[in-house]
């Protein structure tokens, strides 16, 4: 499975095609799906252009993207603490959403991750458990009694050195363990994104790519948009036998 991560916290000053509005997110998601993305991860934005978990921002972003992509392409969002630092407030907001994403990521090293995940599960929203390298996320996630309830684990390699990112990915997978109670999606970021994606491809693991994670193609040139990155990822996956595991 190849997920596209449309925007993250990036701004248009980094790449003019970073989508911010619901209309832009929808257009980017549609092009990415046509290029081969099978799942969508996005960051809803408020009127100020910053990440938002407010019901209106979530409803507009999820609704627009869901209407733009083919049936079967699931749409997820972030619950990152940078948007709402107070975990209790994050839980309140999740309970107030009027349009529900198919899934939402929860960074397990953040305060209140377990409570946020519980709130998502209560509403029938799939949980992507974000486990970052260099944090205690793996230990905390494995200790959570409901770990088997999550949709998948997002193993995020924060090492951006292209010379070491792949080995950091291997170390993170080892830390998570062979008996992980949920499917795994492996991805990297910035200069480490493509080495980690190649590692995922070689292992047959689901992965992701998009302007949230990286702004350049494997040859170092600037990506035109999310679809450009998805097509490049598809070429790499094809070289390792095509589609990664579901």
What does this structure look like?
This protein is of the alpha/beta class and 246 residues long. It has a single domain, classed as Aldolase class I (TIM Barrel). Helix content is 37%, strand content 15%. It is built from eight helices and eight strands. The chain has helices at 22-35, 55-68, 87-96, 113-122, 137-143, 165-176, 193-203, 226-238, and strands at 2-5, 39-42, 74-78, 103-107, 126-132, 152-156, 184-187, 207-209. An eight-stranded parallel β-sheet has the order 7-6-5-4-3-2-1-8. Helix 1 (22-35) packs parallel to helix 2 (55-68) and helix 3 (87-96) runs parallel beside helix 4 (113-122). The protein is globular, with a radius of gyration of 17 Å. The N and C termini lie close together (5 Å).
The CATH H-level homologous superfamily:
Aldolase class I
CATH architecture descriptor: Alpha-Beta Barrel
Number of helices: 8
Structural class of the secondary structure composition?
alpha/beta
Question: Rg to the nearest angstrom?
Answer: 17 Å
- DSSP strand tally: 8
Average residue pLDDT: 96
The proportion of strand residues reads: 15-25%
Shape: globular
Please describe the topology of this protein.
Layout: E1 2-5, H1 22-35, E2 39-42, H2 55-68, E3 74-78, H3 87-96, E4 103-107, H4 113-122, E5 126-132, H5 137-143, E6 152-156, H6 165-176, E7 184-187, H7 193-203, E8 207-209, H8 226-238
Parallel strand pairs: 1-2, 1-8, 2-3, 3-4, 4-5, 5-6, 6-7
């Amino acid at each position: 499975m190849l997920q596209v991560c449309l925007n993250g916290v990036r701004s248009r000053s980094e790449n003019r095609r970073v989508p911010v509005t619901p209309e832009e997110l929808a257009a980017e998601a549609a092009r990415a799906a046509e290029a081969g993305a099978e799942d969508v991860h996005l960051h809803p934005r408020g009127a100020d252009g910053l990440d938002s978990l407010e019901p209106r921002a979530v409803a507009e972003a999820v609704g627009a993207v869901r209407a733009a992509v083919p049936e079967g392409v699931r749409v997820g969002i972030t619950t990152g603490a940078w948007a709402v630092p107070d975990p209790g407030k994050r839980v309140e907001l999740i309970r107030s959403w009027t349009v529900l994403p198919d899934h939402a990521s929860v960074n397990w090293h953040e305060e209140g991750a377990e409570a946020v995940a519980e709130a998502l599960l209560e509403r029938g929203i799939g949980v992507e458990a974000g486990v970052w390298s260099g944090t205690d996320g793996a230990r905390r996630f494995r200790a959570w009694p409901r770990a088997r309830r999550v949709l998948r684990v997002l193993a995020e390699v924060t090492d951006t050195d292209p010379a070491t990112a792949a080995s950091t990915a291997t170390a993170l997978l080892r830390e998570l363990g062979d008996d992980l109670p949920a499917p795994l999606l492996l991805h990297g970021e910035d200069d480490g994104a493509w080495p980690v994606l190649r590692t995922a491809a070689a292992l047959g693991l689901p992965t992701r790519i998009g302007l949230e994670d990286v702004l350049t193609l494997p040859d170092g040139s600037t990506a035109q948009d999310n679809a450009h990155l998805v097509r490049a990822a598809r070429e790499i996956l094809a070289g390792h036998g095509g589609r990664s595991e579901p």
